[in-house]
Amino acid sequence: MISFKQLPLEAKAAVAAGLVFFSMMLSRSYLAEQLEIRTRRWLLRLQMALFANALMLIGSLHVWRSTVTTFSRSSAASSLCFIPWKIAVFMFLALAHSSFFTLLFLVAEEPYFFSLAAYTCLGAYIILIFFLFTLGSVEQAYKFLAGRGAKAGTGNKNSRTAMKPVLAVMLTVVLTIVGLLNASRPPTVNSVEVPVHKLPSSMNNLKVVLLSDIHLGPTVGKTKLAMIVRMVKALKPDITVIVGDLTDSEAEIIRPAVEPLGELKSPLGTYFVTGNHEYYTSDVSNWFELLKSFNIRPLHNENVKIVSPKSTDDWFCLAGVDDIEADVLRYSGHGMDLKKALRDCSSEHAIVLLAHQPVAAKWALQERPDINLILSGHTHGGQMFPLHAGAYFLNPFFVGLYKVGQNTFVYVSPGTMYFGIPMRLGSRAEITEIILRSP
């Protein structure tokens, strides 16, 4: 029987990741109600950081062997550039691994340079892993299809072996720069017209501005949020809604960065529902109080009547549900409760639902197909290559406007900022201007 010491490093990292994941499930199931909320918050974040780092260690070993060990066996090892290259690769991997710990120690009004560098390396790390794996798979497929014909010389073989990591690194550098430049641009304003069944004619052309996934935290601060608020004010919305993942940190720590939200003054109100990241902070109650101080109303499994400025007899029901992650985390007093959220919302009036995750939108429509419009976020539109495939297949609605049935629409925002990694590849940050049309 093979002992733990005899296992390769990749297997040890996988075992470590499994143990951390088991401890996460154990603490969620048995310790959630027993621990003080602050202790639970730190434990959850530490576990998530350790779990991510254990998984990343498997990839990091592959990166090191591909970009360093491969060249140490060639004439390049004697070059004066080889030692600086080893140091650069080591620092790159160290920064990528440290990114998850910035949530614990480096969150302030504006992002620290170290946090931006660490998350940029994390984004480049993901791209590099993808290209190393893809090019390696292509190489193996070529060898399989070519068979065992004429054997190439040792020189040619070494040249081909070195070419793979060099090409992967070059592609990574180019795409990282492109991703950083794309994410640094202001969000695009996307105007979408949505016909809403049973919307009163007096409310035709009502303008709803949708924000989602701002992720105030290590890499998004007050300056970015102030820019978003200025853009929203310029659109002059009737209603502003924030559909979750506003933050990645506790309210007390990042309060100065949130102050621009106090400038949102939509005539028919500004509303908020939780996303999964609000529950990761374990500080939802304090966030609710902070948002209320800025006249932003959290819809905690509840609804409000949006009354027409032209006629008090005309209105529609705006409802919001807690994020489904609250149930997974056993967050006391929270969790998606559609019946409670839609209490007194009858099918005689139009119903608009705010639900952070597209999966929640799907569940809501299965239970209440009379909902006319659901506004969601969460997917980030994949945010950056090569994460699009995962976001696409894991969500019933990916990004943009979907028609479901005869009178129902779902709109999924690609996000107003980004989570952690200050990069966007194959997606664009967006502020959505939704124009409600009466039939």
Strand content: 5-15%
Could you say what the CATH topology of the largest domain is called? Purple Acid Phosphatase, chain A, domain 2
Q: Based on the structure given, which CATH architecture of the largest domain is correct?
A: 4-Layer Sandwich
The strand order across the widest sheet is 1-12-2-3-4-5
Shape: elongated
> Over all CA atoms, what is the radius of gyration?
25 Å
**What is the domain tally?**
2
Low-confidence stretches: none
Main β-sheet description = 6 strands, mixed
**Tally of extended strands?**
12
Given helix and strand content, the structural type is alpha/beta
Helicity range:
40-55%
Number of DSSP helices?
Answer: 14
CATH homologous superfamily (4th level) name of the largest domain: Metallo-dependent phosphatases
Order of H and E elements? HHHHHHEEHEHEHHEEEHHEHEHEEE
Give the end-to-end Cα distance, rounded to a whole number of Å: 71 Å
| Average predicted confidence as pLDDT | 87
CATH first level of the largest domain? Alpha Beta
InterPro entries: Calcineurin-like_PHP (IPR004843), Metallo-depent_PP-like (IPR029052), Metallophosphoesterase_sf (IPR051158)
Transmembrane segments: 12-30, 42-64, 85-106, 112-135, 166-183
Domain Calcineurin-like phosphoesterase: 206-381
GO molecular function: hydrolase activity
